[in-house]
Design goal:
It is a single chain. The protein is an alpha/beta fold and 256 residues long. The protein has eight helices and twelve strands. The chain has helices at 20-29, 43-53, 69-85, 102-114, 127-136, 167-170, 207-214, 238-247, and strands at residues 2-4, 9-11, 58-62, 65-68, 93-97, 117-120, 141-144, 159-162, 187-192, 202-206, 227-230, 252-255. The strands form four sheets. It has a four-stranded mixed sheet with strand order 4-3-12-11. The relative contact order is 0.16.
Length: 256
């Protein structure tokens, strides 16, 4: 259809639907969502800052057990020293095959402090899938629990760290903070896809991407008084928000 008048003619499709003010609001003001975030830090470094600020605050709760930020920091440091003695460093992959527990959080944080990156391994997965993920990620170390079996037919068996029954050995390590040359562009984790269209594929994420998700966001404000339910399977990426969204903002994780 063409609109005609004494001054001009135009196709309806060319007529502006929005006023200039409304167009400015919809396209620019509503989309002004950029926020500053600590892109230069690693995830564990931001946790360490939080542990310094609120050492006595409760960091996590699991059943009848709880840990303060100070105690979580110290135990993760001990594990990190132990992992470094096994050669863990920047971008080195460490598998984590543990059940939902306090040890799960200590393991993830300890790996990052050592400079490595973690691969979550759900113990309920079929052994063949777990073996494939460990070998595909080239994980040289796997953290697990004594009651779980990962005695798979590996071509190159990884070093096994039993985070529960071996803790008496790990506890001999220093509680002091670990020094690692890792930076925000290094890997923080690899999470594998479902593999519904073939072999599972690992998706690699760097530290700064996690910081962008949970620090100074434009969609939620997590404060120290918050309690965050850790309900997602840690092999699923939504667990990233639950775990690091809480720990990097001084909140408390309640492991479901």
């Amino acid at each position: 259809m063409v609109i005609n008048n004494s001054k001009s003619q135009s196709l309806i499709s060319n007529l502006p639907i929005l006023s200039n003010a409304r167009r400015q609001q919809l396209l620019y003001e509503f989309n002004d969502t950029a926020t500053d975030f600590p892109s230069e830090f690693c995830v564990h470094q931001l946790f360490e800052q939080q542990a310094e600020q609120t050492p006595d605050a409760i960091a996590l709760v699991y059943e009848a057990h709880q840990l303060t930020y100070r105690h979580l920091e110290q135990r993760a440091n001990q594990l990190a020293h132990h992992l470094q003695s096994l050669g863990v460093g920047p971008d080195m992959i460490v598998g984590v095959c543990v059940e939902r527990s306090i040890e799960m959080l200590i393991s993830l944080l300890g790996i990052l402090k050592a400079g490595g990156a973690y691969v979550p391994l759900d113990p309920s997965y079929p052994p063949e899938r777990l073996a494939y993920m460990i070998e595909d990620a080239q994980a040289a170390v796997v953290i697990t629990q004594s009651h779980l079996s990962i005695d798979f037919p590996f071509k190159t068996p990884p070093a096994i760290v039993l985070v529960d029954s071996n803790w008496n050995v790990i506890a001999q390590e220093s509680k002091a903070r670990v020094i690692s040359p890792v930076h925000s562009q290094n890997l923080v984790y690899i999470i594998y896809t479902s593999g519904s269209t073939g072999k599972p594929k690992g998706v690699a994420i760097a530290h700064h991407s996690v910081n962008r998700l949970v620090c100074n966001t434009n969609y939620i404000n997590i404060i120290p008084q918050d309690r965050v339910a850790q309900a997602a399977n840690f092999s699923f990426d939504s667990a990233t928000f639950e775990i690091w969204g809480a720990l990097l903002n001084g909140a408390c994780i309640t492991i479901i």
